[in-house]
Amino acid sequence: MLARVSPRLDPHRARGPAPLLAALSAALVCCLVPRLAFASPEEDLLGGGGGGADVENIGQITSMIRWSGVLTSVVVIAGAWVLIRFVRDLVERLSQQFANRRLLLNKVATIFQFFVYVSTAATCVLLSFRLDAGVLKVIGGTVAVSVGFAVKDLVASFIAGIMIMIDRPFQVGDRINFGGQYGDVTAIGLRSVRVQTLDDNTVTIPNNKFINDVTSNGNYGALDMQVVMDFHVGVDQDITKARGIVNEAAITSRYVYLPKPCVVLVSQVIVENYVAVRLRLKSYVLDTKYEKAFETDVNLRVLGAFREHAISPPAVLHRQLDSVA
Q: Closest Cα partner for 139 from 19, 35, 22, 68?
């Protein structure tokens, strides 16, 4: 029995009532610290040089606290913690029985937990303090400042979303590269942009990130897109034949977009300490969704033709120089 009731290392279960205690502590700071920080000069004079003012401030603070309500708040926090644990266990059992509804159940549980956190924090504040006009004014100002800091990034993303709509650096359906994420834009919202990567992952990027960073757009509203592929052969091989093979493999592919040019650029480069000839193919695929299929098709046929015509990859070449008298 001892082994069955041992706690498990679950990050969601390990939280406990910490958010509730944090909310209650924040409320205490909001209500008590301003009273100390903004004590009027009259209060200092009446206190007799500072010591009396501190005593008077402490007295005001203690008069604000309803100690019986503090004990009740502890009971409320414990009850909320038990309720959340019960809901989590219930959702876990239902998720195992109804696997197809697991995401829906987790979503409902998250909303319920958020509601419990907010309700418990508000209840504890109301039970633990005597709220007069001055305290409400201090709490309202503190909440306004906190909300302003919290929505700062949200407002920035909202304005950036409007700028994206007007400037249109990309649109839904474009294939972009941003911050190491490469994929298709599936949605442009007022807060964020969703990108579906080629690994079938949905990446959400805040709009304000696009203001100062560089975005690479592959097709910019068109279906076709340029695809670049590199092939390396040895410097002692038949370069003209190799270039013809690459060009033929590209223009005869089922995915190529022939109305736009298809070129093969030849240059000499260093690859892994080997001198090699690079054949860079620049061709257009008829639809961005066939980009990887186009690359695979061309590479398979080029490699097969290279093997058939005995065109070898780069290698170290050994030369002999005649003796110089």
A: 35
Which among 301, 141, 289 is positioned nearest to 222, based on CA atoms? 289
CATH 2.30.30.60 domain range(s) in the chain:
168-217
| pLDDT at residue 64, rounded to an integer | 73
The segment(s) of the chain belonging to CATH 3.30.70.100 are: 225-308
Burial (CB < 10 A; 0-12, 13-18, 19+), residue 244, is: middle
Tally Cβ neighbours within 10 Å of residue 173.
Answer: 14
What is the residue type of 291?
E
* pLDDT band at residue 53 under the 50/70/90 scheme: low
Question: What pLDDT does residue 282 have?
Answer: 97
CA 257 to CA 226: how far, in whole Å?
9
Planar angle of CA 89, 93, 97, nearest 5 degrees: 165
CATH number assigned to the domain covering 168-217: 2.30.30.60
Buried b (16+ CB within 10 A) or exposed e, 201-224: eebebbbbbbeeeebebbbeeeeb
Q: What is the mean pLDDT of the chain?
A: 81
Q: What is the mean pLDDT of residues 211-234?
A: 93
The CATH class of the 225-308 domain is: alpha beta
Which residue from 242, 240, 263 is spatially nearest to 251, judged by alpha carbons?
Answer: 263
- pLDDT given at position 211: 86
Give the bridge partners for 181, in sequence order: 178
The first and second tokens of residue 77, run together, are 């926090």
| 47 pLDDT above the threshold of 70 | no
Neighbouring residues of 31: CB distance < 8 A, sequence distance ≥ 6: 64, 129, 135, 138, 139
- What φ, ψ does residue 106 adopt, rounded to 5°? -65, -35
The pLDDT value given to residue 286: 95
Instruction: Identify the weakest region by mean pLDDT among 54-68, 97-111, 171-185, 283-297.
Output: 54-68
